[in-house]
Specification:
- The protein has 367 residues and is α/β, with parallel strands linked by helices.
- The chain folds into two domains: 222 residues, Crotonobetainyl-coa:carnitine coa-transferase, domain 1 (Rossmann fold); 88 residues, formyl-coa transferase, domain 3, CATH 3.30.1540.10.
- The chain contains 14 helices and eleven strands.
- A six-stranded parallel beta sheet has the order 3-2-1-4-5-6, sandwiched between helices.
- The longest helix has 26 residues.
- The protein is elongated, with a radius of gyration of 25 Å.
- The chain starts with 7 loop residues before the first strand and ends with a helix.
């Protein structure tokens, strides 16, 4: 099932962005085998990003285990590794070695700062990559930058760009017959995700300082508000017609068309809307805004989001092994993705990849 059915990927176990990229490919039908260290604990049902692939336990410091990994790489279309630069080379599994064994291989490398540059060997996390990209300085209040969830660096700028890069290189290899290395740096991806905002900076659109612009909490019509019961709502009524409906539902008189873009009015209007939303519980506001098409939504917790009627209708969440988790995305009309099964028989996995019983017995003798 899925648009990537028939594609085989070898993933070297890591954390964060690497496993998420492998999950995305597996959700789309790729067959992914994950190579983990021999002493690694068994994946738990709650390890959602590990879904959809099978695990082979190898001690890559042993020659026989390295040969096992290379045998699997020979049979694969792509590879994912998320170690610091140089680690795979020291293990004898760098791009030169692997591409010599499989010239069509797409060798995907996920790092924080990339394979080259002064910071390439440096340690870091999502917050550091956002800071270097100019993204963190734009997120938060006027008093200080605020660490967001690690969606922008690890998963958006990292895993999504790695998965995209691998699929691009797989398409190119179909014509050229040649593989290549995909250097996916989370700092690069975070910078790329900021493309629109760098353009807005150069037009003067983002000139209000952090927390003082249209999309960062400065505008009263693009903001969040607390309700009487301590819950929150989000309004994003940017266009005049949506802003007019927002004011109507809130019981306010509207300014002249387009006047809501006057930054001089934002602080006062934000306080006014805050007082109004605080006057009723969220359920009451949900009822008032129902069908109004005013760019209004409740701010749902992760506990409540799976039960929202829209998410239920879209089947945006699935249950696997008793764990409610996000469904594969995006959607395909003819070859839909799905959460793959998780068999754990190492011998059977190696047989699926074209190795004979004798080869399996020899290759797994040191496991």
């Amino acid at each position: 099932m899925g648009p990537l059915e028939g594609i085989r990927i070898v993933e070297f176990a890591g954390i964060g962005a690497g496993p998420f990229a492998a999950m995305l490919l597996a959700d789309m039908g790729a067959e992914v085998v994950r190579i983990d260290r021999k002493a690694a604990p068994a994946p738990r049902n709650t390890d959602v990003t590990l879904r959809g692939r099978r695990t082979v336990l190898l001690d890559l410091k042993l020659p026989a285990s390295r040969d096992t990994a290379l045998k699997l790489i020979e049979k694969s279309d792509g590879l994912i590794e998320a170690f610091r630069p140089g680690v795979m080379e020291r293990l004898g599994l760098g791009p030169d070695t692997c591409l010599a064994r499989n010239p069509r291989l797409v060798y995907g490398r996920m790092t924080g700062f990339g394979q080259t540059g002064p910071l390439a060997p440096a340690a870091g996390h999502d917050l550091n990559y956002l800071a270097l990209a100019g993204a963190l300085d734009a997120i938060g209040t006027q008093e200080r930058p605020v660490p967001p969830l690690n969606l922008i660096g690890d998963f958006g700028g990292g895993a999504l760009y790695l998965a995209f890069g691998i699929v691009c290189a797989l398409l190119e290899a179909r014509g050229s017959g040649q593989g290549q290395v995909v250097d996916a740096a989370m700092s690069d991806g975070a910078i790329s995700l900021m493309s629109v905002f760098y353009g807005l900076r150069d037009t003067g659109f983002m000139s209000g300082g952090r927390g003082g612009n249209l999309l960062d909490g400065g505008a009263h019509f693009y903001n969040t508000y607390e309700t009487a019961d301590g819950k929150w709502v989000a309004v994003a009524a940017i266009e005049p017609q949506f802003y007019e409906r927002l004011l109507k539902c809130a019981g306010l008189a509207g300014p002249a068309p387009g006047a809501h873009m006057d930054r001089a009015t934002w602080t006062r209007a934000r306080a006014e809307l805050a007082a109004i939303f605080k006057s009723k519980p969220r359920a009451a506001w949900d009822a008032i805004f129902a069908g109004a098409d005013a760019c209004y939504t409740p701010v749902l917790s992760m506990h409540d989001a799976p039960a929202h009627p829209h998410n239920l209708a879209r089947r945006a969440f699935v249950e696997r092994d008793g764990i409610t988790q996000p469904a594969p995305a995006p959607r395909f009309s003819r070859t839909p993705g799905m959460v793959q099964s998780l068999p754990d028989d190492t011998g059977a996995q190696l047989a699926d990849w074209g190795l004979s019983p004798g080869e399996i017995a020899a290759l797994t003798s040191d496991l």
